[in-house]
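hey m, so remember when u said the tokens were messed up on ur end? i reran from scratch. heres the input so u can diff it against urs
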Amino acid sequence: MSLREQQQQNLLELESTGRVFLRYLIPSMIGMVLMALNFVVDGVMVGNKLGSVALAGVNIAGPIYTIFVAMSIWIGVGGATLYSQSMGARDFDRARFIFTHSIILITIFTVIIGVVAYAFHNQLVYALGANEATAPFATDYMNVFLMLGFVFTLENTLSIFVRNNGNPNLAMISLIVTAISNFVLNFIILYVLELGVRETAYGTIIAAALGILVLSMHFFTKKNTLRLVKFRFEKPLFVMTMMIGFPSFLAEIGVSVFTIAHNNAFSRLAGTDGLAAFSIVNYAHSVMLLMFLGIGSAIQPLVSYYHGAQDVKRKRETVRIAIFTAVGAGIAITLLGQVAAPFIVNLFGNFSSEVKELATIGIRIFFSGYILMGVNFVMMTYFQSIGQVKMAAWITVGREFIFMLIFLLTLPFIFGTNAAWMAIPLSEVVIFLTILLYLKREGFELGKKEIDG
């Protein structure tokens, strides 16, 4: 065992579980927020400088960004989980091969997807919803991402591995540099050089490249055990990577399903006022969702490592601390929603009394789902990190697809428009109950028995 490998082992195995969890939690939560800001910054600056048509074009190209994010998380989380398990098992050669395999895979996948999509970019841009007015802007933005998106996905995947290799602070710093660089570059592009949408996309890619440069500093630190080795495609490893990372991919796609489903539901139920009210709740929800995702991301490298090391005690303690953290945060946010709902609504602008009333009720009902949402995220990540992929996938599909859609399509027609806000809280309750039933069936009690991956 090398000195660096010994140092990482000591860090995760000798410090208190609570302290290790906190060291991963804070950078993870900050990183999640900053990752989402990159695309938002483009939209805000383009809308203010180039107008609503250009902004619509950027938004139409948004699914390309989402697909690349989802792909990088899919392979990144899947590969990093296997990497941390191998590190915990002291199989360092295998860990380095897994790292190499994942980096090469995400680069190849992104390039292939980009080249194929670029060949059909005219058809693709209209399939995404463009018209004659928005198509030029959407095409300009989309084509840059199709051809150079591998820079962004490589940065995102490398960030996950650096975090798993014991350096969550550097992963956070890289995202800070990326976000600030994106803002500065696009300000210069739009307001100083007075260029267009295509150049803002280049600015985002350049910012991601700067993030890679920051992450590359990890290879010169004492914490580093990451190393590129000779690559060969290994089908069993590829399958395992895609299987383990699949719940994270589903979770990313589920965000889009949630937004589209609620937009359609409130459009039918309450027209323009309903769409405006949901937009307010959705903006607030995006912030809270990222916080819970941060808690889940914080435990992934820890649980994976302890699982590989067969350290049941620390794995159990990590999950327990994460659950208590998630429940505490959920209760606090739920209470905040009950007290501060009118204030939150007013933050987003001066709306009609109908919109304010619907959004205020929405926040108070919707926020109640946060009490269990964090717990469900933690358990999904736990099952994913120990190789229980089916259960992890069930939690994601159940809460973000099946039960959410069932409640959203039925409750409003029985109890009225405001019942639509109950779709997420009720789906969280149902999934939580299925988790309890599964644990009981397996004879598992937190703190007493371990479910083997």
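this time it looks ok to me. The CA atoms of residues 104 and 337 lie 44 Å apart. if urs says something different then somethings off w ur setup not the seq
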